[in-house]
Input
Amino acid sequence: MVVLSDAHIGNSLQRLDFLEKTYNYCINNNIHTIFNCGDLLNGLLSSSRGSIIKKDYEKQINFFLKNYPFDSRIINFTILGNHDRDFYNGGFDLKQLLNMKRFDIKVLGYEDSSIKIKNDKIRLIHPIDKNFGTFANNSKIIFRGHSHESKIKTVGGDNMICSYVPSSCDMFYRDGYAYPGMFDVIILFNTKGIINEITINSLIYIDKFVKVGEFCRGLLAPEQYNSVKYEETPKKLHKKRK
Output
């Protein structure tokens, strides 16, 4: 599966080309599922980065429906974030609207939802309140949007993985981020359908997708896992390429 977050379509920093390249990556690698952690659209909320290019709720929705990539072989499971929730101010419920207009986009809810896979589950969150109970759920794997940064934390005795999903647009809030990114995730199950191992490859797009980090962890036997190799800043990548 591929995991995305924070496309902010309708903002001048949107990267429709990155989304198209991501779809091509999925097709070329036989990936049919995308998990998305919210803020698909920008809404009319102001931001310290970029500017609103579609200053009308309905026009922005129509722009999204027309320009968000589509392939009948790929399904998106997504939650919605604070920018998506802003559409309530214009009289639109994006969850209902997207589920009606795009059969390839399955909206699970706002801010927090879980997806059952075999006999286990994965949690998607887009915490809006700073007091949000990030780890209040029993999911061993959490993908977290909203922060526009890329990092991975282990909590709960290393048995829970919380992955901060990078921005899929050019809206960056921390030094060292210069390219949109995504996660390519491989999950292995045991014979009972419980998640046994996860591998998260962190990719950014420059003129092609480049892997800048890899995380592999066995969840049922946490003492047996590969060492973490994770680079958060493309600056390190440039030094290696030179």
Summary: The CA atoms of residues 150 and 237 lie 15 Å apart. The first strand starts at residue 2 and ends at 4. Confidence is low (pLDDT under 50) at residues 222-242.
